[in-house]
Amino acid sequence: MYSFDYARPASIRDAASLLAAKPEARVLAGGQTLIGTLRMRLAQPSDLIDLSAIPELKGIRADGGKISIGAMTTHAEVAASDAVRRAIPALAHLAGGIGDRQVRNMGTIGGSIANSDPAACYPAGVLGLGATIVTDRRSIPADSFFTGMFETALAAGELITAVEFPVPKRAGYVKFVQPASRFALVGVFVSEGPGGLRVAVTGAGPCAFRVKAMEDALAKNFSPDAIKSIAVPASGLNSDLHASADYRSHLVGVVARRAVAAAG
What we know:
Elements: E1 5-7, H1 12-21, E2 26-28, H2 34-39, E3 47-50, E4 60-63, E5 66-70, H3 75-80, H4 82-87, H5 89-96, H6 101-106, H7 109-115, H8 122-128, E6 132-135, E7 139-141, H9 142-145, E8 146-148, E9 151-152, E10 160-166, E11 170-177, E12 184-193, E13 196-202, E14 209-210, H10 212-220, H11 245-263
């Protein structure tokens, strides 16, 4: 690691002030990606600003047809939450399948979506449920949030404070797992809710994306057979040592049908 200064602010305001004063600082949430990046000397921040002591960023609340999850809430807490299990069991299932036990108990929902890893599970859930990302400055619809590989709509110094999920009529999440990392080679989140049908894919492209053709077909007939003939083109999909773009294209269709069955 390179050397850096460390701060552990006690409020969102204090954290925002530190970020404004130190433009080369990095925010530490669960640290499941950042710590490894620092150890490999792939990043050289001037400061680490640890958000773990800010109580406003933690907790899960059910309120009027939506579930609000604080940005520093861990994957394990989401998976174990009675409120999430009752309202959006597919989201609890998604959280419970992330990484291993250490990752689930250290990693946070805010850190995961801010990182926008192309193979992370949460972006599919956020996009597939039509969630709203709440920051210390504004509210960002999920459809506008993920902009590219490790890129989001967050401005410099902007902090995620919570994620608000509308409660769907039904939802399902299935992923085809890369066995060593537990990341998704392809993961698909399907939901029918206040915003209509949504099909969101992770693991296949540079960032999570929706498949409108599948959404339109499912709106007419919510069954796996309704999307059997719909293919996502391999052009633009990820290709690496784990899977080619063509294989990921094939997997999107297979996993999407399984997600529909899980939701049905």
